[in-house]
Amino acid sequence: MSLMISQRKFHLFWSDIGGAGPKIESSDLSGSSRKILVNRNLILPISLSIDIPNRRLYWSDPKTSSIESINFDGGDRRLVKTFAFDESKPAYLDVFEDYVYYSTFEYQHRSSVRKISKFGNSSSTILLRDLPRHSDLILIHESKHKTSISSVCSNYASPSPKNSLCLPIDERTSTFVCSHGYKYNGEKFTCEENRNFSPACKMPCLNGGTCAVWNNNEKKSGNHESCVDCKNGFTGRYCQIDLCHNFCLNSGICKIYNETTKVGKNSGFDDAVFCNCPPQYDGPRCQRYKCTDYCKHGSCHVDRADFLPRCMCDDGYFGERCEQLSHESSSDPCWERCYNNGTCFVTPYGLPVCQCPPGFDGMRCQQCTALDCANGAVCLGDLGPNREICRCKMGFEGPLCEIDLCKDYCHHGICNRVGHSLKCDCPARFSGPRCSIDRCDGLCQNNGVCIEQPEAKNVACVCKRSFYGVFCEKRYTCDDYCQNNATCVEFNDTLTCKCPAGTSGDRCENLNCLPCRNGARCFKIDPTFSPQTHLNAIRLGDFFIQCRCPLGLTGQFCDRYDDANNHYCSSHLRCLNGLCHKPAGSSPRCLCRAGWRGLVCNLPTCYNYCLNDGYCLAINQIAICKCRGGYSGNRCERFDGNSTQIKATASRSRDNLSRPLLIVLLPLFVLLLLGGFIFYATFNKWRRLDIQFRHNRMHDDQILQNPSFLSGSEDDLSAFEGESTNFTNPLYDNVYNDTVVNTTNNEEHELLPNRDQTRNGHN
């Protein structure tokens, strides 16, 4: 536990890791006005520190590996730093200016001192290393610890009563706490001796209570201690229960009746406290919304003038609570149709229409031009000049009905408008009219975890190991925790069980059979049987369990040969799927056939085990076949004859036939393709050679007018005149027949012009 005192704010802050669970609380200096600030997501808050200027409280929790902070009233919870699993965990801390200084838990009880920004999101700085042990951390500075603080107690004109201590409540008021054995008399301003006090009374009483010893002879022998004369508003064995805590709902303010009302162990809520409720709520605890189920056939709102509920009736109803049905409404469509003195008339189609006076609008004249009523509210302007108001529908309020009461109405649930009232649909964890009561709050003890059970609309406690009970309120001991002869080990307040063979579970509560091998089977044996039957057996509760070994094997799990009683293959060892072999000078052994293994060859392997293309799987040292379509059996040895499977088998057969054909035809196809390519290449080569020796005849003007033919024309061609046979080559005959002069006919052939003639012509 850690305790801090705020000198300036006159408050106590402390952490508590026992009782109903870890929590951080506060009170005034007298112990009254006690309040729980944090009770969730805590495990071991071992150190507290206060930041007076900013009114914040910081704490460290090495179990959650975090440093966090809250306001003095318990709000605005913030995470300063979360430490990784490989970082040193925070131990004790103190706050000064903008930093949190903390010591750490490290290996071999070593420690270090570090600092980190109190605003978070930064790495730590190491200030001191390798301290011999971790201890509390206190920062001393004149601005942090004031010694000249004045209080209302130091300003009293008269001294404090004898045997008393003055404690300031705030800057203006104080109270007195009497010494042990005395009680305070407010009328006489004295601490009077408590006649019921006994020096043997050691009970710590809070909130002004006095310890007294009661004689209880009528009930049982001996005396017992109790706290009496608790301060108003407190009760309980130690006067520790604040009757105002979570008593008033819906922001109601809890009050004590008067100073003369003495709240003791026989007092209840009704005669001690009461609630000042907001205008919209009433009831002993402000639990009822005034409009709930008030208007029978209309919407309700709470009038802001007298805080009474008012109804706006639906069509066809009237009365203070819209409880009366108008008979005229069934025959007259204009009955109470128009608001604000609007004039109603019926169209030829039988529909009512409102004609609104100046300043009003809407289908029923329900809207004022001067007010913009929201959320379907009706503006009422017939109350007088400039007195328009908005009449809100159920679930809305405000001058313009702009406030949705459903917003934040259900603290942890879903708000629904059912008829003319608000209803909360609460999850399993929360209850109450507005889902404000956390059913898990303080429910589970000893760090048990409260969980929701949505199906059952309930909550339950999941206990940590070593605890049990509905609220985890009971603790196991080693005498009754482990079951089935398990060994119990206690370490750091945690019980652990070492389970014997054949059991499992946190408490060894599950009874299993032994993991027998090599085909042996596990049996339960009655303890009344002869001791010989208990050989290699294990006792579990009221019976024994044992592995029955095949012939030739022994051991608790039948995992070795029985060499002591194994001499001959014929009678001492049975090899199920193999041959018994006895080497010279040793005991018989099994030689397994292919597909089998084990000391007696009883365990199948996957080697050639599955038939008909079955797929073999080794599961738990057993070969299991996954058969293809059409086959079944342990080794896929049976053909089922199913038509679909037959088709699949036929398809596989066709596939098996097509494979060799494909192997033969593929090379032939390649050879044919290669031969075709060679033939095509050879054919193209000869075709190109043939084209080179072809000559196409050209027209005369293309040949004879070429200047190249004119060069060297001085040669005498007379020898060739008239002798066309001089060209014996048929190809040349075809080309040059037209150039030969035929003297026997009169046909003229164009020849190349004579150079002399050409020259003479030019001359």
Automatic annotation (TrEMBL):
The record, for SUPFAM superfamilies, names: EGF/Laminin (SSF57196), YWTD domain (SSF63825)
Give the transmembrane region(s).
661-683
Key words of the record:
Disulfide bond, EGF-like domain, Membrane, Repeat, Signal, Transmembrane, Transmembrane helix
Q: What InterPro entries does this protein's entry cite?
A: 6-blade_b-propeller_TolB-like (IPR011042), EGF (IPR000742), LDLR_classB_rpt (IPR000033)
Which Cys-Cys disulfides exist here? Answer: C244-C254, C277-C286, C334-C344, C356-C365, C373-C390, C392-C401, C440-C450, C444-C461, C463-C472, C478-C488, C499-C508, C606-C616, C627-C636
Segments forming domain EGF-like = 240-287, 330-366, 367-402, 436-473, 474-509, 602-637
Q: Which Pfam families match?
A: EGF, Ldl_recept_b
Q: Which domain of life is it from?
A: Eukaryota
LDL-receptor class B repeat start and end residues: 10-54
Could you tell me what this protein is called? EGF-like domain-containing protein
